[in-house]
Amino acid sequence: MKDGVLADSDTVRERRSKLALDQAALALRNLGPNHYFMPLFAAIICVMFYRWVELPKLTIWFVLLTLSVIPLGLLSGKFRHREPDTADAGKWILRATLAYGLFAVTWASMGIFLWAPRGDLNHLIIIMLLACTIAGNGALTGASKPLAVTALTVYGVACVLVPLREGGLIYNGIAALAFFYVLYLGYMTSQIHATARDMLMLRNDKSDLIVALAKAKLESDEARERAEAANRAKSQFLANMSHELRTPLNAILGFSELITSRTFLGNPEKHHEYAELIHGSGQHLLTLINDILDLAKIEAGGFELRESDVNLAYVIAECVSMVAPRAESNGCTIHTDVASNLPLLFADQRAIKQIMLNLLTNAVKFTPAGGDVTPFARLESDGGFSFGVVDTGIGIAGADQMRVFQKFGQGRHDVAINDKGTGLGLPIAKGLVEAHDGRIALESQEGLGTTVTAYFPPSRTQHRSALRATS
């Protein structure tokens, strides 16, 4: 619950920072022409005031104003091209406020540099310029509260204090009018700020909604693809299993009917032959059902590991002896490449044996006569353990290399042989390896063979020397 509240507060904080950045960006965009036009306006004002103010004062004010525009212009450019990161929102807004404040103070300093004693027309023009400036800048910077407050404060103080320099009833009255004028503009600016804030919030909400809709569509598409894939897998399962299950069942029923009919009652050899065929078909059927059940357990997370220290060299030798007759009938040769002094592997021995048998069976199946099949095991440099099978068989096309790890995922290379299988061997091997916190990898090239490697992490290895030390 507490984590959820913290996550919500972080989201709210991020949205506020983004809104503040958007408000500052809008205000700086409104102030964009200032970088070019304000020096021009200042030059015209200097020409107008030449009759009242000495040239050095005019020059100083013009140079200061021109220089003060540069930081604001540079920062506005960087602000537009900044990375969209809300973490440093406060720094960007502070820099923008300081840059704008420098410009505002310089422009408002006309009340000091250009004020001519006892020059009513001069005073009127300065007050008018300051009044127009505060009105214009209040509207331009209204989107951003820090910039708007800076504009109203700097220009408002100038509008009120400049007339008080001269004194007298009229100028004091102008100062009073300027005070209420600034308050009125402050109210108007707050309305502009509220309107801009609502507009930006609506735009951000619209953007968030578009992102959410796009994400929802993507998730929907992915869910639909998964559902379609599951439907295809179901159809493929039924298509494969209907053939794989019917073939041994038909053999069992057919040969058992022949025995029951007593057609060959006087021929014990035929009875013996049919019994062997029935037994072989039953074994094949049992293997299929076990594969399906094992895969179902793995996918449901119900496969329980019975872990112990496993001598992989012994397991590989046992698996090779089981597969050797088939390899011999296919005309391929098995070479074992097991590193000496291998550590024991802490794993489920039955699962490790099944992994190796599946890999060896696949390799022998897809390796033509004259080819080589090499089961291997080695210790990796990081202390992990890897074993697998290398063959010089027909190989697997790149487009099929991910498919073979899917349920019933035979690749196009299966058409090259008569014994296609069900496509459950590699998915089961992958599931068993991952149940041990490992990973499985396949490297293959058509016509050059295939290498399948199962990697187990260092936590599942134990050196024999360490074992002897603890025993």
Question: How does this model look, in words?
Answer:
- By secondary structure, this protein is α+β, with helices and mostly antiparallel strands.
- Helices cover 67% and strands 10% of the residues.
- The model is unreliable at 408-420 and 464-471 (pLDDT under 50).
- The strands form 2 sheets. Strands 2, 3, 5, 6, 7 and 8 form a 6-stranded mixed sheet that branches. The chain has a 3-stranded antiparallel sheet with strand order 1-4-9.
- The chain contains 13 helices and 9 strands.
- The protein is rod-shaped, with a radius of gyration of 42 Å.
- It has 3 domains: 2-216, no CATH class; 223-300, Signal transduction histidine kinase, dimerisation/phosphotransfer (DHp) domain (Helix Hairpins); 308-470, Histidine kinase-like ATPase, C-terminal domain (Heat Shock Protein 90, 2-Layer Sandwich).
- It has helices at residues 2-30, 34-48, 55-80, 89-108, 110-113, 120-140, 145-166, 169-260, 268-300, 312-330, 349-365, 425-435, 464-470; strands at 307-310, 333-334, 337-338, 344-348, 372-379, 385-391, 439-445, 449-456, 461-462.
- Helix 1 runs parallel beside helix 4 (89-108) and helix 6 packs antiparallel against helix 7.
- Order of secondary-structure elements: HHHHHHHHHEHEEEHEEHEEEH
Oligomeric category? single chain
Strand content: 5-15%
Number of domains: 3
Radius of gyration: 42 Å
What's the tally of helices?
13
